[in-house]
Amino acid sequence: MKTIAIMLGAVCWGVLYAPPTLSRTAVNVRPDVAVITFGAETVVAEVVDTPAERSVGLQFRDNLPDGTGMLFVFQSQAPRSFWMKDTYIALDIAYLDVNFRIVDIKQMEPQTEELHPSARPAMFALEVRKGWFAEKGIIVGAQAEVVFDPPGVRIN
Questions:
Q1: Lowest model confidence (mean pLDDT) among 13-22, 47-56, 87-96, 139-148
Q2: What fold characterizes domain 33-148?
């Protein structure tokens, strides 16, 4: 059986990331955090890449500090849809393609079951506090740089 590893993002600090369906044995790394940069703006995000982690997401949390978020990683690019059941914080969600370019941004109200589908296929979704993207002037088409598990960066 072949072992496959791929590198995502422009800068990787020497860390390779293999999506969940690919073998991690070659890289022995499962990222816990990612630093996502849009020009001068940065988000430190928890990385969730398993179905169980993605299904919980930011549910049951009371706050989300500015400059932090959650990065949902999927094994392939496809139409995505999120809802806010049991999520207490109003959020923005940016859907990103395989090249980390934003293909859609939606605002989501807490504790609703309204679906928020991506306008185009996405491989990643980044959730931050509601209004963050507009305040920072980040729009559809913006290019992100993503660094998985950069040295010295952790989320408590």
A1: 13-22
A2: Jelly Rolls (2.60.120)
Q: State the DSSP string of the chain.
A: -----B--SS--TT--B--TTS--TTT----SEEEEEETTEEEEEEEE-SHHHHHHTTTT-S---TTEEEEEEEEEEE--EE--TT--S-EEEEEE-TTSBEEEEEEE-TT----EE-SS-EEEEEEEETTHHHHTT--TT-B-EEEES-TT----
pLDDT one-digit tens code per residue, 3-29:
223 333 333 333 334 443 333 333 435
Domain ranges of the chain: 33-148
